[in-house]
Design a protein that fits this description.
single chain; about 190 residues; mainly alpha; Tetracycline Repressor, domain 2; 9 helices; elongated
């Protein structure tokens, strides 16, 4: 049986240690132990811990975007395209990279002065959320689309924060129910 390349093992360990089991502030030694890797391998592939965090978030964003794209493509109505965010979150948590809460928020909170590369991936994730929510709010809310998109952004980030306190399935169900209520207010 072949062992995964050290770069992949480090990314997988970062996901597990930093985003699923613990927090971004977990020492790099824990990541190295989980990956079965040496400090020089981390530094040669990523430069430092923040480089590893950035690469892990870039991978998460790529996977997340693919999952969300699939759920949007399956949606049949404008309302369903907005709610696809919560459907995608269910699929992502179940099938891909389960996490305790938003890895992007966790990284933003734990790294007070992020590098340009980390700032770029954090900004890219935020813009993906805001841009898509606005796009899919327009057919429902018209000139009030920005308001609906903002409210749904808050509902989504609230969903992610609730995952710290409760089972992710409960948090997603409650977040989606909130989103449905918000959307209904714009449809009436």
């Amino acid at each position: 049986m072949r062992t995964a390349p050290v770069r992949d093992r480090l990314l997988d360990a970062a996901d597990e240690v930093l985003f699923m089991d613990g927090s971004v502030s977990t020492p790099v030694d824990a990541i190295l132990r989980r990956a079965g890797a040496s400090p020089p391998s981390l530094y040669s592939h990523f430069g430092n811990k923040e480089g590893l965090i950035t690469a892990a978030l870039q991978r998460r964003l790529r996977v997340w975007t693919e999952v969300w794209d699939e759920q949007i493509a399956r949606a049949r109505t404008d309302r369903d395209r907005l709610l696809a965010l919560w459907t995608a979150l269910r699929v992502y948590q179940r099938d891909h990279l389960t996490e305790r809460w938003c890895a992007f928020s966790g990284a933003a909170a734990a790294v007070p002065h992020p590098s340009e590369a980390l700032t770029a991936v954090l900004t890219e994730e935020t813009q993906l959320l805001r841009t898509r929510l606005l796009e899919y709010s327009r057919p429902i809310a018209g000139h009030r689309a920005k308001s609906l998109a903002s409210a749904l952004f808050i509902a989504y980030t609230g969903t992610m924060a609730t995952m710290l306190r409760e089972d992710y399935r409960t948090a997603i169900d409650e977040g989606e129910a909130t989103a449905k209520t918000l959307i209904a207010g714009y449809l009436s």
